[in-house]
Write a structure and sequence with these properties.
The protein has 278 residues and is an alpha/beta fold. It contains twelve helices and eight strands. The longest helix is centred in the middle third of the chain and has 18 residues. The two termini are 33 Å apart. Bound molecules: adenosine-5'-diphosphate and magnesium ion (MG). Magnesium ion binds next to helix 1.
Amino acid sequence: MPLNLVPALKNGPRVFAISSGKGGVGKTTLAVNLAYLFAEAGKKVLIFDGDLGLANVDILLGLIPRYHIGDVLEGRCRLEEILLEGPAGLLVLPASSGFASLTHLSEAQKLHLLGEFEELTAGLDWVFFDTPAGISENVLYFNLASQERLLICTPEPTALTDVYALIKVLYRRYGVKRFHLVVNWVRRPNQALEIYRQLLRVIERFLGSISLNFLGGIPFDRQVSEAVKAQRLLLSLYPEASASRAIRKIAADLSEVDIRPFEGGLQFFGRKIMGVCA
Ligand SMILES: Nc1ncnc2c1ncn2[C@@H]1O[C@H](COP(=O)(O)OP(=O)(O)O)[C@@H](O)[C@H]1O
Ligand SMILES: [Mg+2]
């Protein structure tokens, strides 16, 4: 059943990519819980699952997709018919094997999808892309199609070098200069800030003038994996868990970020995507 989307907002949605460099660091957990917080506050929120990994957004929320993007491309359904409705009316565009073919579309398919994207997101307040790990074409695609980039790393050295590699390619190849950082799995006070400073030092030394906004840390918390196993949202199952409190603080800071709306709305979003994947 197609979802009833509200009329277009004047300024269009705020579009954030959530990426990490390394897999398994908490992107999907943060993406769904952040999206839920904004949805609960009455905003129209879409989470676009661009990750084909195991812990997908739909699985994490206990949702069962009926269609995928391949069905849209082949004209069997509209993009909005793929949407699933999660807790608090949160909209989920589920990942699918069809998505892998997004980078190999014909001109006609690109135009078709572009029109569908524009219509779909016109009435939304927030769009979150849960991207795959690494620096693949799809990761760059989502990051370039977003107004802002939220990066996650953990105190593990490999997570740090992988997130640096993503910043480097987005800056050197595409001139992207603005990022936000969340450090997950922190085990002691100040550890998140130390990791942030460490990353900032490397960026300043090797890349130059990049803005890296520290959004905070999320502690290691067993209730996170318990919520994943229960296919429930951490924030609704354990609202007072230490990780839940940290995510609420990140959401509050995120809503204060001064974001410039896309000029020309999602047209711009679509064209950028098509440009990267051409
Ligand atoms: N702060 C945390 N404390 C404990 N476990 C966590 C935390 N963040 C994530 N996890 C666990 O790590 C695993 C990977 O998280 P996920 O959000 O799926 O990462 P990604 O999307 O980056 O691959 C999940 O099983 C989740 O339960
Ligand atoms: Mg994930």
